[in-house]
Every structure is written in C-alpha cells, then in structure tokens.
Amino acid sequence: MKLFTITEPKVAKVPIIISSPHSGTYFPEMIADKFRPEMIEKPDDTDWFIDKLYDFAPDLGITMITANYSRWVIDLNRDPDSKPLYDDGRVITGLTPTTNFNGEALYQGEALDSGDIDLRIENYYRPYHDKIMELLDQTKQQFGKALLFDAHSIRKVVPGIQKEPFPDLILGDNDGATASEALINSALNVLKTSGKTVEHNHPFKGGYITRSFGKPSENIHALQLEMAKTNYMDDSETKYHYERAEVTRENLKEIFKELINVLK
User: Domains along the chain?
Assistant: First the structure.
C-alpha cells in the first residue's frame, strides 16, 4: 500500500493543494496485530469519505494529496514532538494515539515505546509532510504563491471536546496567522452564504499541518476546513449520503472558485 495518493489536476493547474490526512483506513501488517481487532475493523476516528467528497477538485485544476493509512497508525496532523495543539482541557489524541476520541483503548496491551514511535515518524509521518512541502515549493515556483487547504470532518457530537454539537463548518487559520486576510475573508464569505452554521477558529483553529505550512509572509498560505460529518453522511454518520453530499460539494466548489480568483 502506498503511503499516500496524489491526484493531479485534469485541467490547467491552479495554486491550490488539498490535503486529506485523516481519510485513510489501512494498517501496516507489521503493527496491525498490536491493535484490538474490533478497532481495526472500524477505525471510527477516520474522516470518512473526505477524499470522495472533494473528488471534484482536479476538475478545477487543484492537486490533491490523500493519506492511505489510518490516523491511528500516526496522526499526520499532530506536532512530531507531541506538543499539544490546545490547552483548554479538551481530549486531544496524540501523535500515535492509544485511545480514540471517546477514550477507548486502541491496543491489546503493551504501550508503544520510543523506538516504535520514531519508526512511525520516519516511515509514515515525514514522507507525507515532505511531499506537501515539495508540492508547495513546486506550486510557488510556478505561480509565485500557493495555498494548502487541509480538509477534515468530525462527528457532530464529541463530548470529550465539547458538550454541545459542533457547527456544520469551521474555518481554521490559527487566528489569522496562516493565510492572508483576503483568502480568509473570501472563504468565510462563501461559507456564510451556505445556509449552514459556521464558526471561525472555534473550536478548531487548524491543526499542525495548517499551522506549520501556512507562512503568508512567504506567499504560502494554509486553511483548514473542519466539518460535521452530517454535512455529507447520514444521521448515523456511517454511510455516505448523496443528497447531503451534493449540496456540500456545491458549497465547496464555490469556496474554491473564490479562492482561485483571489490567488490570480
């Protein structure tokens, strides 16, 4: 199994790269037997179908990178030194999670040692980040600028993070630090006309990918869009819901059309 999949644009390239770091479901054979079998059968913290939801992007000239391995192998959106992204008391799963978001154990017994973690960083984490950097560098060389759009989804209710249901759509830019004001405002303006509930930097400001790659002073921008799974899945949040997904896809297309215009 390849670590990630690159989907090239089908039309003239634009300076946008979409990253989907949490839609993978595979586990390497060498470590799969360490996990509880029932967890591997249903890796519930997966950003299910995000790659499918965004599969219109190459028709707009956008490049996509999609991780193929489960975030439970290693979380590509966490600090490699395991520094927490938030300090407000919420549950934060780690670089190599040992529990899911509900606090249930992922492993059958033994804890991971530092050697295991180092191998996963080297074999699964760094190649993904290195490829993003390569794509951004190539894009900046061609256009003089680049935008990384990190695509995520989450259950509508996750009590370990907050008791209230999440809004439908949450744009994250680390309080304006990871993208230009023009790009942020253009995305927000479209989101606010979507008919969905929208928040900005609350309760998510963007994960490590957004925060580490977004350097607007160097003409490399990054945005994260977190969305409730009910935007494109059924109420059980287990099945793709084509009618809901089509509405959300149209919202997303409008966002990218506006972002492309700003980047011209």
Answer: 4-263 (3.40.630.40)
